[in-house]
Amino acid sequence: MGKSLTYKILENNLISGELKPGSEITVKVNQTLTQDSTGTMVYLQLEAMNIKDIKTDLSVAYIDHNTLQAGFENADDHEFIKSAAAKYGIIYSKPGNGICHQLHLERFGKPGTILLGSDSHTPTAGGLGMIGIGAGGLDVAAAMATGTYTLKVPKVLNIELHGKLKTWVSAKDVILYILKKLTVKGGVGYIIEYSGEGVVDLSLTDRATITNMGAELGATTSIFPSDENTLDFLTRQERTKDYEGWIADEGAIYDKKLVIDLDKITPMAAMPHSPDNVAAVKDIEKIKVDQIAIGSCTNSSYTDLMKVAAILKGKRVHPDVSLVISPGSSNILKMMSDEGALGDLISAGARILEASCGPCIGMGQAPKSKAISLRTFNRNFKGRCGTKDADVYIISPETAAVSALTGYLTDPSECGLDFPKVALPDKFAVYENYFIYPPKDREGLEVVMGPNIKPFPLNEPLIDTMEIPILLKTKDNVTTDDIMPSNAKLLPFRSNIPELSKYCFGTLVDDFHVKAKAADGGIVIGGDNYGQGSSREHAALVPLYLGIKAVIAKSFARIHKANLINSGILPLVFKNISDYEKFDETDVIVLNGLINSLDCGKEIEILNKTKSFSCTLTFDGSKRDVELLKSGGYLNYVKNNK
Ligand code: F3S
């Protein structure tokens, strides 16, 4: 029986467990990555685990999210991460070096291996034929400490690509097309594996654009085969030695299949405020544009930006449009500078930002009130850009560049311009001066903790019976941005939970923290797909700090559910979804016999004391998850079991 590429890599790294969907396995983690926004917590947790050396083959600490230094806080965090990296043997990537996923593709990713990253777009690495999984920070800290990761084996969805993309249609349009078909929930519980003859014409960075936004489909990760294109990319990066060919067996078995004809795809756009609210650009009514942002881990590769420069060369950005461009890496910026493309962008009137996440995380470049902003990024949730009433559309770099010239959202295939053909350089620039490799002798090295770094909160072991109020009831599809907003004002406090707690659920309700403190804790009732979006661990740590003991929802997004368990917060699900309607804020509920129910895998009875009725909840988790919850979270568990 033929094996999928996914199963072949998992099997190659399998430490324990049975490789079948739904069963729990432990695998060797070859590489980890962190970015600074989640990284400070990861390294505080690694400190608390009290280890000497990391157990992975390679771990990298990137600084890409919070690179503005308007106060001392970010610089202190960078220094803390730098010192922790040196102490534990981790490669440190300085601010300005670029976006973690782009850099990891360029310099470290390796076909056939497993990468765990504390960022939800870690699946970008799947473009290189490796399994890149986004996980909570604690999982990443534990992976560095133990060299392992425990997960439930996902099902495998095979997307077979046929045909060839038309001119002006690119990888971004492909993934937007898939999002339109499958929605933000379509990949939940799956690893998406791409195959078919259509794969051959997709460059490595095209593939990475597609796997990057597999995160928006809710997939555990996405992966392309490692083939000649992979070898070509690694060779141009002077990393031929890292190449291995990895493809699925002939006749591989998959749990689900989707066939996509690339010829049928036209330029697409995700309209406000969800990545799956997709339509063909030609079908969207003419809208005037205020801002266009090009970059992010989805679309900041050399080819993406060189195409943009070629489209803008010798022309002028529309007077009403602010065009901002953030390159994916310092080496891309260097090549653009050497080849004159940077000059073309500047003479056209583009604003060049440093190589970092920048506007994608709301780190500068918030558009004006009620703006229409076109972005080549991966998310367009309300408020993420830093302006609450702005409307953000997600589009391809080609659509962005052409729209920057016309001043309205424009289908590039109808613009009448010549299609820019961009060839790859024989060799990419591979300067490494922004990387700091750990010293050989690390004896006696200490971490440096500035005043903005506060200890992270610890939960208590689970108690058997809780009588507790409902503090908040949310609708469906609440994002981690809704639970714990992240913007330029708040990012400097990512290692200061008490300060962040003042903004918890800030997009949904005012002063949640005051209510939570007055009630001395409580629970949250959530709708469908609770906690979708970014892997933000703070969306669990801040509620933990505010005394949230459980979230009862119709369903959970995968990473957020894992983050809740890691924090010792119970993620429970209504057995009958209609029971959701019966609960209101301020109702007091009683959860009884929790420990026994979890131990025995039984359903949990919930009594609504205020309205005098009972209903049933379920917990879908492994034995290990139960142990984590009983211990009061992952860190307590690791400490107890050292
Ligand atoms: Fe950075 Fe945005 Fe990607 S914040 S890692 S560019 S999703």
TrEMBL record:
Q: Which organism is it from?
A: Psychrilyobacter piezotolerans
Q: Which residues form the Aconitase/3-isopropylmalate dehydratase large subunit alpha/beta/alpha domain?
A: 8-283
Question: Per the database record, which ranges form the Aconitase A/isopropylmalate dehydratase small subunit swivel domain?
Answer: 523-576
Pfam families assigned to the protein according to its UniProt record, in alphabetical order: Aconitase, Aconitase_C
Entry keywords, A to Z: Iron, Iron-sulfur, Lyase, Metal-binding
The enzyme's E.C. designation = 4.2.1.3
InterPro entries, sorted: Acnase/IPM_dHydase_lsu_aba_1/3 (IPR015931), Acoase/IPM_deHydtase_lsu_aba (IPR001030), Aconitase/3IPM_dehydase_swvl (IPR015928), Aconitase/IPM_isomerase (IPR050926), Aconitase_4Fe-4S_BS (IPR018136), Aconitase_4Fe-4S_dom (IPR036008), Aconitase_put (IPR006250), AconitaseA/IPMdHydase_ssu_swvl (IPR000573)
SUPFAM superfamilies registered for this protein in UniProt: Aconitase iron-sulfur domain, LeuD/IlvD-like
List the PROSITE patterns hit by this protein, alphabetically.
ACONITASE_1 (PS00450), ACONITASE_2 (PS01244)
Entry cofactors: [4Fe-4S] cluster
List the molecular function annotations (GO) for this entry.
aconitate hydratase activity
According to UniProt, the name of this protein is Aconitate hydratase
